[in-house]
# Entry
Amino acid sequence: MAEVVLESIYKRFGNVTAVKDFSLNIADEEFMVFVGPSGCGKTTTLRMIAGLEEISDGVLKIGDRVVNDVPPKDRDIAMVFQNYALYPHMNVHQNMSFGLRLRKTPKADIERRVGEAAKLLQIDHLLERRPRELSGGQRQRVALGRAIVREPKVFLMDEPLSNLDAKLRVEMRASISKLHRRLGVTTVYVTHDQVEAMTMGTRIVVMKDGLIQQVDSPINLYDKPVNKFVAGFMGSPAMNFLLGNVQNGHLKSPQFDLAPSGDLAPKLKALEGKKVYVGIRPENLGLRGMSAIEEGDNIIKAQVEVVEPLGAETHILASVGGDQTLVARVDSHAQVAAGDQIDLLADLGFLHVFDMESEANLRYT
Amino acid sequence: MTQQVLMAVLAVIAGVGASLAYFFGTNWLLDRLAPDGRRPDGEYLSREPLRNAIRPWLFVLPALVILGIYLVYPVFETARLSLFDRSGTEFVGLSNYAWAIQNPEFHLAIRNNVLWLLFVPAMSTAFGLLVATLADRVRWGNVAKSLIFMPMAISFVGASVIWKFVYDYRGPDVGQIGIVNAIVVALGGEPQAWITVPFWNNFFLMIILVWIQTGFAMVILSAALRGVPEETIEAAQIDGASEYAVFFKIIIPQIFSTILVVWTTITIVVLKVFDIVLAMTNGQWGTEVLANSMYNWMFRGGGDFGRGSVIALVIMIAVVPIMVWNIRRFQTEEAMR
# Structure
């Protein structure tokens, strides 16, 4: 059990800086998720924590110990890799016990730990098999088992579910969350999948271009994104962004005229006359006359392009003024068809406004 | 000179042309001789299956014939000759075999061959693996690899000539031009005629083949090492493995089948070792090996086809198990894919 502390960590590859000024306190027993598009530096950061990449600058502590120059084997961590990285020439039991055997753990101890982990992961009937004879999901469980038996201070997971099919991924997602609750080991989990991040993390680090964009709990990231990138990255379908002008405190374009309320209204004054991005999540839009959202200075005119009925809800892909598109999540019984002109009502309480240049969320600046 | 070149070009053209003519000709003939037709009841009859059954045989026929003449027939002829006298005319039963079993020179050749078999494949594979592993860790690794691979391009006799200079001995009072003696003298030792030092001279000859074969082992093993997933190595490091543990417990087991292939391939080369011994010592000073012995009996001093054939058969029989094992292994590996 340990906390992991990163103090302005940098990683440079030649002239490229992959990770910039990364500072983060990961509390004991926390499940911290690093999320971001590929190339954002999340895996590099994880590999620096693992000791597989050298740290160019900054301080890394695991527990109370500075481990910048400690080799991976002495950091008391276990890692789960994207393609499992099982040893192909060893059977499941040997794979799981390899680390323990290297550390000269007593035999009885090894048997007990492997047995327990195998049972926990429901792979106790596979112990004699070689990795090649296992399915993807089983391999992933073995890889997890190999990490668990070590009883490390920290688990590091590098996109462990990305090679699994969708159904299995959902299943394993729950298994890993359960496992974390049960073992209570500090975990750092890297993924590019925002759904995984939202569902698993106690906190999430959103990264882009080697920089931390925001660190917060899943629901705070969703409700209070600090900038346009975080707003667009978290949530599926993604938040809609429409270009608008600030005029007399209203957000205007030929297709809409929105009057923000609450604390947003006074802040808009500073941007009077400027162009801004108006951000609104698909579920904060409703069809006029078929929505609980009240009407009043909140209409967006759009033309339906595609209707996607998902059963529980329907997604409407619509064009706004021909050159912009948005997605609205509406009731599945909405009577709309492609080509229809519709009026969408925006829930003004959930409106976000982003500065054109800094892309910062006006609400939190 | 120009005439010779012209002849060579003509020969190539004629050879390729004849092959093309054969393949197109037989193919055409097959289509003519087994065309689609009609059954007596008027039903359309395709002879495609028949043609497809014959066609591959037509195409491999030249290869089969040539292999038969140059490989299969000689085996039987050698077996036959081993039962006949030196001129191959009079049947002598197993007396050639009896001679071999009692002959000390033959025993020496067998012993030396065993030494070669133990030493050369082991050293070549070990050095090859060492270079392949280490070369990837330094910037000039590729240059080192090319240098080590170069001897592969030299013929065995050429290599022997080079190493003759390395081991050269000029008598006790003359300046030494051989690098080994030069070093020995520089260190205050006595120069030696290395290739005449009993027993150890065998190893001096073996080093030549190791020098040649290390490049081969290195190239193949280098490719195999590239195939070891980086993640398994990283996983092992995190699992607590030292560099040595990673190498011996993770990398070696994953490329073990390749190591065996390299080992057996070199073993087969070694069983046939001939040129180096012929060029360096011609089997003198206790360096005789089977292939050189066979050559001497078969073609020198008037030739003794009977005894030469016996030795040839011994070499062939020694190679067979390794070949069979190699092929079996290859097949099981293919089956596992």
Q: What stands out?
A: The mean pLDDT of chain A is 89. The CA atoms of residues 108 and 254 of chain A lie 75 Å apart.
